Amino acid sequence: MSVKLVIYRGTHEIGGSCVEVRTDTTRIILDCGMPLVDENGESFDAKSMDGKTVPQLIEEGAIRRVPGLFRDPKDSSPSPDAILLSHAHCDHTGLLKYTRKEIPVHLSPGTSDMMYVGRRFAKQAGVDGDRQQKFKPGVAFQVGDFTITAYPVDHSAFDSMAFIIEAEGKRILYSGDLRLHGRKPGMAEQLIKVASAEPLHAVVMEGTHVTPDQKKGITEWDLEEELVQHIQSAKGLVLANFSPLHVDRLVGFFRASERSGRIFVADPYAAMVMYKAAKRCKVPDPVKERAIRVFYNKFFENSFEKKGLRYVHEMFEPNRITMEEILTEPKRFVMIFRPNMVEFDFGGTLPLHARCIYSYWEGYLKQPQWVEFHQKLALAQGDFIRAHTSGHIFAEDIVKFVERIDPRKTMKVLPVHTFHPDEFPKLLDRVENLEDGQVYEVR
Questions:
Q1: Helix, strand, or coil (residue 120)
Q2: Which residues contact 433 (CB under 8 A, 6 or more apart)?
């Protein structure tokens, strides 16, 4: 029997990750993500999918045809045997709600936690509890013909995983999303050690930063030092804009606030992420940590009862802080922030000399909400600072990583999660560039 691989989406784009590995009798799906860009290269509008059927979404190209995966009445194909999730970002999980309910979903305990929080607080993708099959990192599990072992990787989503997949004498590494410049370098070292111990035949390798003008960014530790400088020099309230699911960034802002003599103010969403993560690793717990306060934004305050989140309210109520307290001494605080808070929580006017530290992809700044925010910030005589490093591996680190996991030169490199697969052969040999939907036999 042969082992075959199909990248349904991701050979020429970042986002929408969906990869199949199969034998003659077993099929597994690696990630099931929402696209990040549309056919014109603009940001994909997930709301445009609301109310549409799977056949409509397939016709429009929002969902790719994957035999038996989605709830398509026109598709009579057998279902895949399992879906494996590398991490909780929507570009890897966002289409789960359209998949057939009978397909089990294998994920790490931390990914399960983050998806729960994202679903309850941010309307992100979730997975029903009866579909979840939680694996233990480093412990092999079986799906049909496949022996699968998940290994932790450092990414901007908590408890992210890479997978080593074995069947019929073939050994494949799926990198998921990872990096070498985060707070946990030991994770990459362990993966390299395990992956290189036996011959690999293929690596499905993320290439977000493989571009014609490849640049290397800074580490999370360097970013923390930047944040300390920006916070210490701020004249007023510091507004921190970043993804709460990025636990490394949460820790970085918390540590920088503490080092600067300020109190870190989380919203309930970020506080819940920290609370869940603190049960699994060394992360500040907002229930116990006195240097963290929790601000109830209007959206949470008005909805926690009907959304069944009273237990969250009760958990964080002792550490709650009001807007009045913050505005009385704004220079004492670093506060998690979103642009809609200007209207709903600040009453339309930002405090004098507010400083916004933006730690996201710069492409989001094109959105209308940010244009309006900059106008409000200017009226408050405030300033705007970009301070960010990527959750994805830099191009030169891909070279180091691939060379170390494949000392025998036995494997093919299959690029994914990249807009520029044509740049891979300039960095590495043994590259096999595929097209979306192309069947590749692992040799």
A1: helix
A2: 11, 414, 415, 421, 422, 424, 425
Lookup result for tokens 């939680």: 134
d(CA 405, CA 192): 5
- 3-state SS string for 59-116: HHCCCCCCCCCECCCCCCCCCCCEEECCCCCHHHHCCHHHECCCCCEEECHHHHHHHH
Please name which of 323, 328, 382, 371 lies closest in space to residue 347, comparing C-alpha atoms.
Answer: 323
Helix axes 247-259, 268-278, angle to 10 degrees: 100
Residue 283 CA to residue 399 CA, distance in Å, equals 31
CA distances from 396 to 153, 263, 381, 423 (A): 18, 38, 40, 12
The tokens describing 208, both together, are 């977000």
Give the burial string for 351-379 (b: 16+ CB within 10 Å, else e): beebbbbbbeeeeeeeeeebeebeebbee
Which 3 state secondary structure label does DSSP give 425? helix
Separation CA 97–CA 433 (nearest Å)? 30
347 CB-near residues (< 8 Å, 6+ apart): none
How far is residue 352's CA from residue 337's CA, in Å, rounded to a whole number?
16
* Rg from Cα positions in the chain: 22
Report the side by side order of strands in the sheet with 18-22. Answer: 132-134, 105-107, 82-84, 27-30, 18-22, 4-9, 439-441
Mean pLDDT in order along the chain per 10 residues (443 residues): 96 97 98 90 86 94 96 96 97 97 97 94 88 97 98 96 98 98 96 98 97 90 98 98 93 97 97 95 91 95 92 95 97 97 96 97 84 95 97 97 96 98 96 98 97
- Stated pTM of the model: 0.95
Q: List the end-to-end C-alpha distance of the chain, in Å, as a whole number.
A: 12
CB 23 within 8 A of CB 40: no
Strands 355-358 and 238-241: parallel
How many C-beta atoms surround the C-beta of residue 138 within 10 A?
11
Per DSSP, 423 falls in state G
Contact 400, 428 (CB under 8 A): no
Q: Domains along the chain?
A: 4-213+391-441 (3.60.15.10), 220-386 (3.40.50.10710)
